[in-house]
UniProtKB/TrEMBL annotation:
Organism: Papaver nudicaule
Source organism superkingdom: Eukaryota
Name this protein carries in UniProt: Inactive serine/threonine-protein kinase scy1
Amino acid sequence: MPLSDKIKELGLKGTQRDEYYAWGLRQVAKAVSFLNNDCKLVHGNVCLASVVVTPTLDWKLHAFDVLSEFDGNNEGSTGPML
């Protein structure tokens, strides 16, 4: 289910909402880190529409249609990407 739809369906409030968002954002950040650092790939379109929610409420990154290779030759790059 798209993240925006699931957020509306759950109707979380206050601390519960904040903790769920923080947990979900961490899952997306881990996915981006894996793509960037382990696979040397760039997602290219991380946004609300590129996140889906599983039946167990996990957030998953999808929409890899603009995925591209990261060559590591960016000037100013000093360490691992997110």
